[in-house]
Design the sequence.
């Protein structure tokens, strides 16, 4: 797919038609779809049901979780089970479950709404228990289980009577999940597999009645199994002493000739890696949802403290450095919100065309979610980093008090740290973004080659993107950024070839560029979903201007890192020179302080993240 | 048992209340709305009664278009049908005029019971249930803390009196009963309940088409204001015994916490 780097003569390059309508619902479509060609889902398009789902979960979280949030920071199986069962009764556990086993089979947007809204309870431990149960703990059975397995396990997992878990990680197999050594041997009667080995860091481990786990059959067939309490030889290790989320259960499992009936193989022998990796995609975007909820919620705490705390006879929220922090917190939360609902909407735009009760439905779900691997990883990274950056800023606003356990932020700080580690570390997720981008480009799964070609001499297409002047200016910056990414990607492939996929020095900034472009692109398309409310439009323009200018600077900076490395390797300076020339052609006149002050004034009025209403 | 629950949409407790420039109303733009608290207990009591004795629960609200949300919330929790009386200017009706509108809308339904919250969190009249009992010729009990259906024609209710006393009373049906908060545990809307809500009917009455002869206001709003917060600190001085004695005196006679 290389574009000849010497073919700079624009007359030699013919415009390659891209069928943008065909790309709707495709993972990674944002890479090649200009801002005026596609559409995205955002919360402005919530239907009445979505809004009521949100209210219902918020109502429950505020009244049933929030009042006992401190108690939930200590392991308490009885209390946790009681909450999980209440969530089961209300349907919170079964949004992804088929109707045939008592599930609700809602759209993916609803799953995100439920996960996000549970953060109103302000307790991370119960969220982790919930997320593990509804995500990786049950999805393998929903997607890959046969009818008998579904009927046996899913009704009790949907009601919360049973708690689910997922055991993949081993002492020598973390990010490299297939490096595990747990073995499964068929007994001589051919009725059971005997599992031997161990699994570590099993969330819900101490409480779960059901566990999806993995082992090698015949040494070369990675296979998924369902364990239940009738499987002898499933030995529970002690609870881990964790840095945070101390109210959740995390254990080691030992399999000592653990006797698993052959009926408990998920899918078929040898299908384990597909089971493991596909459900992790979902785990990722759902983690993006809970962390996005946390990133919003923490703003209330930061603002409340900044209002109460007085220094030099003034509330510290009046000081510019504090106000900048508050503004940035809102921007990060808005970015996460935009990307999460864009992704869920894209999944639903595909899945809504299929009958949920049909035999092939869950195989289509898997394929669609796998196709959105880039988006799932972006959701995880953006959500978890918005949460951790916001929580860090909140702690800084608390000053010395933030370092004292008597104040709430210390616990939150510890609880949050895991989010950048589990469900695939953020490093692994950046690797997935970079790797998938290369794969989709080289295999021409997306028309990246055409897009590179079209943008070679026209970094900003000559047309009006919006009737709104300010939006049109932002659109030009976004299209420049899209061309910048395509140029950088192409140069990387030309210079490194297949080796690029193993060069993490380059893949990390490349992934960061993809993340930034996805946010800018989805943000612009979100503007089409706004109502005529002038105040909301004005607020949108302020926050979106901040997003675009900040992300643009980051993209240029990451591109420079890559291009200067390629130049240095090839002992030239042409790429960096070309980038400098291109950047000089786009003039940015923007003062972010006014936009930030506008947002924080609104925050002063609402006293919470207000961009959801 | 055919039960009507009157439900009002009121500003959420966390909403910032901002007065209009002439102090005659509150600005609605930034208000977050919710169901009046005691009405949610009234709904729960009606749903429990339906579950125990069968029948129908109808959620009824009067007000601007957004008021339909409280009906929808009730349908999601298990009410069978909605009855919405549309009136964009409902805030301008005094309580007697409001009761006359309700009477017109409800009179042909022949409810066995009308439940309403004790009072609304915004205007706080606490009169609607009583007025409806009079206008629809029903029995009435206020401040109800418990209910017990005796048979198809009688109900027993536990009423809250002053000084921590309660009284059980028997009433003939039909009856209009106002419910005190706290007598039960209102349920949450389940996701399935919300999905079912769409299939339940909401009948709409346009209040302008209701014969409201004589429903002219007799009470007029003069001015609204936000109470000023006043902080008053008294320092008690003396020996520890003197301080304890003076503090006890203050608490008993001035602050009257005992």
Sequence:
């Amino acid at each position: 797919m290389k574009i000849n780097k010497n073919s700079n003569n624009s007359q030699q390059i013919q415009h390659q038609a891209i069928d943008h309508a065909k790309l709707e619902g495709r993972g990674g479509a944002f890479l090649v779809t200009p801002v005026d060609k596609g559409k995205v889902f955002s919360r402005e398009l919530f239907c009445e049901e979505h809004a009521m789902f949100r209210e219902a979960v918020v109502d429950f979280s505020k009244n049933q979780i929030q009042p006992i949030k401190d108690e939930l920071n200590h392991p308490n199986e009885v209390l946790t089970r009681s909450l999980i069962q209440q969530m089961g009764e209300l349907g919170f556990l079964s949004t992804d479950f088929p109707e045939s086993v008592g599930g609700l089979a809602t759209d993916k947007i609803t799953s995100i709404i439920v996960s996000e809204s549970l953060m109103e309870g302000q307790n991370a431990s119960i969220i982790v228990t919930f997320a593990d149960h509804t995500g990786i703990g049950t999805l393998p059975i929903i997607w890959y289980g046969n009818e008998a397995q579904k009927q046996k396990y899913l009704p009790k997992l949907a009601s919360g009577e049973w708690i689910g878990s997922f055991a993949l990680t081993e002492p020598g197999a973390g990010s490299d999940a297939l490096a595990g050594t747990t073995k499964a041997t068929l007994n001589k009667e051919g009725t059971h597999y005997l599992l031997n080995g161990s699994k570590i860091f099993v969330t819900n481990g101490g409480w779960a009645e059901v566990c999806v786990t993995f082992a090698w059959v015949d040494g070369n067939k990675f296979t998924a199994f369902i364990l239940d309490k009738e499987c002898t030889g499933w030995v529970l290790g002690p609870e881990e002493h964790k840095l945070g989320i101390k109210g959740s259960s995390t254990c080691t499992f030992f399999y000592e000739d653990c006797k698993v009936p052959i009926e408990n193989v998920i899918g078929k022998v040898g299908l384990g890696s597909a089971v493991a990796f596909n459900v992790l995609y979902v785990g990722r975007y759902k983690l993006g949802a809970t962390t996005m909820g946390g990133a919003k919620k923490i703003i209330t705490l930061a603002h409340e403290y900044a209002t109460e705390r007085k220094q030099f006879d003034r509330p510290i929220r009046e000081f510019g450095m504090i106000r900048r922090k508050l503004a940035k917190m809102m921007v990060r939360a808005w970015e996460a919100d935009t990307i999460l609902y864009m992704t869920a909407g894209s999944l639903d735009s595909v899945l809504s065309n299929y009958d949920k009760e049909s035999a092939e439905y869950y195989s289509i779900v898997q394929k669609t979610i796998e196709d959105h691997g880039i988006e799932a990883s972006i959701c995880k990274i953006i959500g978890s980093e918005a949460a951790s950056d916001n929580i860090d800023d909140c702690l800084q606003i608390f000053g010395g008090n933030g370092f004292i356990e008597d104040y709430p932020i210390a616990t939150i700080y510890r609880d949050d740290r895991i989010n950048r580690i589990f469900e695939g570390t953020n490093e692994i997720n950046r690797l997935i973004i970079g790797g998938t981008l290369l794969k989709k480009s080289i295999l021409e799964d997306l028309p990246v080659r055409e897009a590179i070609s079209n943008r070679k001499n026209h970094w900003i297409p000559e047309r009006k993107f919006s009737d709104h002047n300010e939006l049109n200016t932002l659109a030009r910056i976004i299209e420049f950024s899209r061309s910048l990414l395509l140029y950088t990607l192409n140069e990387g492939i030309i210079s490194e070839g297949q080796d690029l996929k193993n060069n993490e020095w380059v893949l990390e900034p490349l992934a960061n560029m993809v993340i930034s472009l996805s946010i800018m692109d989805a943000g612009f398309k979100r503007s089409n979903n706004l109502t005529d409310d002038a105040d909301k439009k004005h607020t949108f323009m302020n926050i979106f201007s901040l997003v675009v200018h900040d992300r643009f600077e980051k993209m240029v900076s990451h591109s420079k890192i890559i291009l200067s490395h390629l130049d240095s390797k090839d002992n030239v300076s042409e790429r960096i020179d070309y980038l400098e020339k291109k950047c000089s052609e786009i003039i940015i006149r923007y003062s972010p302080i006014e936009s930030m002050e506008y947002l924080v004034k609104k925050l002063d009025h609402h006293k919470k993240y207000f961009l959801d209403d | 048992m055919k039960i009507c629950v009157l439900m009002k949409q009121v500003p959420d407790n966390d909403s910032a209340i901002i007065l209009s420039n002439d102090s005659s109303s509150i600005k609605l733009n930034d208000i977050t709305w919710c169901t009046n608290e005691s009405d949610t207990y009234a709904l729960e009591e009606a749903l429990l009664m339906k579950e125990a004795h069968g029948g129908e629960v109808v959620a009824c609200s009067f007000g601007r278009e957004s008021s339909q949300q409280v009906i929808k919330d009730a349908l999601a929790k298990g009410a069978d049908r909605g009855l919405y009386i549309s009136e964009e200017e409902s805030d301008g009706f005094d309580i007697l005029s409001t009761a006359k509108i309700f009477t017109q809308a409800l009179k042909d339904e022949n409810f066995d019971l009308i439940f309403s919250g004790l009072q609304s969190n915004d205007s706080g009249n606490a009169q609607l249930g009583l007025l409806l009992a009079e206008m629809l010729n029903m029995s009435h009990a206020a401040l109800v803390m418990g209910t017990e259906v005796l048979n198809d024609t009688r109900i027993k209710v536990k009423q809250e009196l002053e000084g921590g006393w309660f009284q059980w009373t028997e009433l003939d049906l039909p009856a209009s009963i106002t419910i005190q908060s706290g007598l039960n545990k209102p349920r949450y809307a389940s996701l399935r309940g919300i999905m079912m809500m769409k299939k339940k009917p909401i009948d709409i009455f346009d209040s302008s088409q209701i014969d409201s002869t004589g429903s002219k206001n007799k009470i007029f709003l003069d001015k609204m204001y936000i109470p000023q917060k006043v902080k008053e600190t008294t320092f008690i001085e003396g020996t520890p015994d003197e301080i304890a004695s003076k503090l006890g005196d203050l608490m008993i006679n001035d602050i009257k916490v005992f």
Q: What stands out?
A: Chain A touches chain B at residues 48-49, 52-53, 55-56, 59-60, 63, 89-92, 95, 104, 106, 110, 114, 605-606, 613 (CB under 8 Å). Chain A has 18 helices and ten strands.
